[in-house]
Amino acid sequence: MSRIGRMPIPVPQGVSVDINNGDVSVKGPKGELQRQFSPEMSIELKENTLTVSRPSDEREHRSLHGLTRTLLANMVEGVTKGYDRYLDIVGVGYRVEQRGENLVISIGFSHTVEVKPLPGVALTAEGNNRIRVSGIDKEAVGEMTARIRGIRPPDAYKGKGIRYSGEIVRLKAGKAGKAIGRG
Q1: What range defines the domain where residue 63 resides?
Q2: Which tens digit of pLDDT belongs to each residue from 53-86?
Q3: Has residue 177 been placed in a domain?
Q4: Which end of the chain is more exposed for a tag (fewer CB within 10 A), N or C?
Q5: Are residues 67 and 91 in the same domain?
Q6: Quick check: pTM over 0.85?
Protein backbone atom coordinates (compact mmCIF):
# COMPACT_ATOMS: atom_id res chain seq x y z
CA MET A 1 0.00 0.00 0.00
CA SER A 2 1.09 3.54 -0.70
CA ARG A 3 2.06 5.36 2.47
CA ILE A 4 0.86 8.67 1.10
CA GLY A 5 -2.26 7.20 -0.50
CA ARG A 6 -3.41 5.59 2.76
CA MET A 7 -3.24 8.80 4.80
CA PRO A 8 -6.70 10.27 5.47
CA ILE A 9 -7.39 13.91 4.59
CA PRO A 10 -9.13 15.86 7.36
CA VAL A 11 -11.81 18.21 6.00
CA PRO A 12 -11.94 21.39 8.16
CA GLN A 13 -15.12 23.10 9.34
CA GLY A 14 -16.67 25.27 6.61
CA VAL A 15 -15.38 23.16 3.71
CA SER A 16 -17.80 21.11 1.63
CA VAL A 17 -16.74 18.28 -0.69
CA ASP A 18 -18.94 16.92 -3.50
CA ILE A 19 -17.90 13.63 -5.10
CA ASN A 20 -19.57 12.49 -8.33
CA ASN A 21 -17.97 9.49 -10.09
CA GLY A 22 -14.40 10.81 -10.14
CA ASP A 23 -15.47 14.46 -10.40
CA VAL A 24 -14.62 16.22 -7.12
CA SER A 25 -15.52 19.78 -6.19
CA VAL A 26 -14.25 21.40 -2.99
CA LYS A 27 -15.80 24.64 -1.65
CA GLY A 28 -14.28 26.66 1.14
CA PRO A 29 -13.93 30.19 2.50
CA LYS A 30 -11.38 31.21 -0.19
CA GLY A 31 -13.21 29.78 -3.21
CA GLU A 32 -14.07 26.63 -5.12
CA LEU A 33 -11.89 24.11 -6.95
CA GLN A 34 -12.97 21.29 -9.26
CA ARG A 35 -10.96 18.41 -10.65
CA GLN A 36 -11.61 15.24 -12.62
CA PHE A 37 -9.89 12.17 -11.14
CA SER A 38 -9.57 8.67 -12.53
CA PRO A 39 -12.89 6.84 -12.07
CA GLU A 40 -10.92 3.73 -11.01
CA MET A 41 -9.87 5.40 -7.74
CA SER A 42 -12.55 5.32 -5.07
CA ILE A 43 -12.85 8.57 -3.05
CA GLU A 44 -15.02 8.50 0.07
CA LEU A 45 -16.08 11.18 2.56
CA LYS A 46 -16.89 9.85 6.05
CA GLU A 47 -17.17 12.00 9.18
CA ASN A 48 -15.19 14.98 7.78
CA THR A 49 -12.40 12.73 6.49
CA LEU A 50 -11.55 11.97 2.86
CA THR A 51 -10.00 8.61 2.02
CA VAL A 52 -8.70 7.29 -1.30
CA SER A 53 -8.50 3.57 -2.11
CA ARG A 54 -7.39 1.66 -5.19
CA PRO A 55 -8.98 -1.40 -6.80
CA SER A 56 -5.81 -3.48 -7.29
CA ASP A 57 -2.03 -3.52 -6.92
CA GLU A 58 -1.34 -2.93 -10.61
CA ARG A 59 1.41 -0.44 -11.41
CA GLU A 60 -0.98 2.21 -12.77
CA HIS A 61 -3.32 1.97 -9.76
CA ARG A 62 -0.39 2.23 -7.34
CA SER A 63 0.86 5.42 -9.01
CA LEU A 64 -2.62 6.96 -9.19
CA HIS A 65 -3.29 6.22 -5.51
CA GLY A 66 -0.74 8.62 -4.01
CA LEU A 67 -1.27 11.21 -6.74
CA THR A 68 -5.03 11.34 -6.20
CA ARG A 69 -4.63 11.71 -2.45
CA THR A 70 -2.04 14.48 -2.79
CA LEU A 71 -4.11 16.45 -5.31
CA LEU A 72 -7.18 16.18 -3.04
CA ALA A 73 -5.16 17.37 -0.02
CA ASN A 74 -3.87 20.34 -2.07
CA MET A 75 -7.43 21.27 -3.05
CA VAL A 76 -8.63 21.19 0.58
CA GLU A 77 -5.65 23.27 1.77
CA GLY A 78 -6.05 25.72 -1.13
CA VAL A 79 -9.67 26.58 -0.36
CA THR A 80 -8.92 27.01 3.37
CA LYS A 81 -5.47 28.71 3.51
CA GLY A 82 -4.47 29.40 -0.10
CA TYR A 83 -0.93 29.32 -1.49
CA ASP A 84 1.75 32.03 -1.65
CA ARG A 85 5.06 32.00 -3.52
CA TYR A 86 7.60 34.82 -3.48
CA LEU A 87 10.13 35.90 -6.10
CA ASP A 88 13.11 38.20 -5.52
CA ILE A 89 14.53 40.44 -8.24
CA VAL A 90 18.30 40.86 -7.86
CA GLY A 91 20.36 43.33 -9.91
CA VAL A 92 21.19 47.01 -10.18
CA GLY A 93 18.32 48.84 -11.85
CA TYR A 94 16.05 45.78 -11.85
CA ARG A 95 12.61 46.57 -10.45
CA VAL A 96 8.93 45.70 -10.54
CA GLU A 97 5.83 47.86 -10.31
CA GLN A 98 2.13 47.10 -10.08
CA ARG A 99 -0.29 48.32 -12.78
CA GLY A 100 -3.78 47.17 -11.92
CA GLU A 101 -3.65 43.40 -11.66
CA ASN A 102 -0.61 43.20 -13.99
CA LEU A 103 3.07 43.63 -13.17
CA VAL A 104 5.57 45.69 -15.18
CA ILE A 105 9.12 44.41 -14.78
CA SER A 106 12.31 46.25 -15.84
CA ILE A 107 14.91 43.55 -15.90
CA GLY A 108 17.76 44.82 -18.09
CA PHE A 109 16.10 44.43 -21.48
CA SER A 110 15.65 47.36 -23.87
CA HIS A 111 11.93 47.23 -23.03
CA THR A 112 9.81 46.57 -19.95
CA VAL A 113 8.01 43.24 -19.62
CA GLU A 114 4.32 43.22 -18.69
CA VAL A 115 3.11 40.09 -16.91
CA LYS A 116 -0.60 39.19 -16.84
CA PRO A 117 -1.74 36.73 -14.16
CA LEU A 118 -3.27 33.36 -14.98
CA PRO A 119 -6.96 32.92 -14.02
CA GLY A 120 -7.30 32.41 -10.26
CA VAL A 121 -3.87 33.86 -9.49
CA ALA A 122 -3.11 37.29 -7.98
CA LEU A 123 0.19 39.11 -8.51
CA THR A 124 1.41 41.72 -6.03
CA ALA A 125 4.57 43.85 -6.11
CA GLU A 126 5.98 44.19 -2.60
CA GLY A 127 8.46 47.02 -2.77
CA ASN A 128 10.69 47.44 -5.83
CA ASN A 129 12.20 43.98 -5.94
CA ARG A 130 9.79 41.39 -4.52
CA ILE A 131 6.81 39.69 -6.18
CA ARG A 132 4.09 37.76 -4.36
CA VAL A 133 2.12 35.18 -6.34
CA SER A 134 -0.99 33.94 -4.52
CA GLY A 135 -4.05 31.84 -5.26
CA ILE A 136 -6.05 28.80 -4.21
CA ASP A 137 -4.80 26.40 -6.90
CA LYS A 138 -1.28 25.17 -6.06
CA GLU A 139 -0.63 24.13 -9.65
CA ALA A 140 -1.58 27.53 -11.10
CA VAL A 141 0.50 29.41 -8.49
CA GLY A 142 3.55 27.27 -9.28
CA GLU A 143 3.08 27.68 -13.04
CA MET A 144 2.77 31.48 -12.78
CA THR A 145 5.86 31.65 -10.54
CA ALA A 146 7.89 29.56 -13.00
CA ARG A 147 6.78 31.71 -15.96
CA ILE A 148 7.87 34.93 -14.20
CA ARG A 149 11.22 33.39 -13.21
CA GLY A 150 11.68 32.23 -16.80
CA ILE A 151 11.72 35.85 -18.03
CA ARG A 152 15.23 36.28 -16.59
CA PRO A 153 16.56 33.32 -14.57
CA PRO A 154 19.51 34.01 -12.23
CA ASP A 155 22.82 34.51 -14.03
CA ALA A 156 25.47 31.90 -13.14
CA TYR A 157 28.30 34.46 -12.92
CA LYS A 158 26.82 37.52 -11.19
CA GLY A 159 23.59 36.13 -9.71
CA LYS A 160 21.44 38.82 -11.35
CA GLY A 161 17.90 37.97 -12.38
CA ILE A 162 14.62 36.70 -10.92
CA ARG A 163 14.89 33.94 -8.32
CA TYR A 164 12.59 32.13 -5.94
CA SER A 165 12.68 33.55 -2.43
CA GLY A 166 15.21 31.50 -0.50
CA GLU A 167 16.79 30.01 -3.66
CA ILE A 168 20.54 29.65 -3.39
CA VAL A 169 22.35 30.56 -6.62
CA ARG A 170 25.81 29.02 -6.85
CA LEU A 171 28.08 31.41 -8.71
CA LYS A 172 30.73 30.22 -11.13
CA ALA A 173 34.31 31.44 -10.71
CA GLY A 174 34.69 33.20 -14.05
CA LYS A 175 37.98 33.50 -15.92
CA ALA A 176 41.00 32.45 -13.89
CA GLY A 177 43.43 34.55 -15.97
CA LYS A 178 41.88 37.84 -14.83
CA ALA A 179 42.27 37.00 -11.15
CA ILE A 180 46.02 36.47 -11.50
CA GLY A 181 46.55 39.66 -13.46
CA ARG A 182 47.18 38.29 -16.91
CA GLY A 183 45.53 40.05 -19.53
Answers
A1: 3-80
A2: 999 999 999 999 999 999 999 999 999 999 999 9
A3: no
A4: C
A5: no
A6: yes
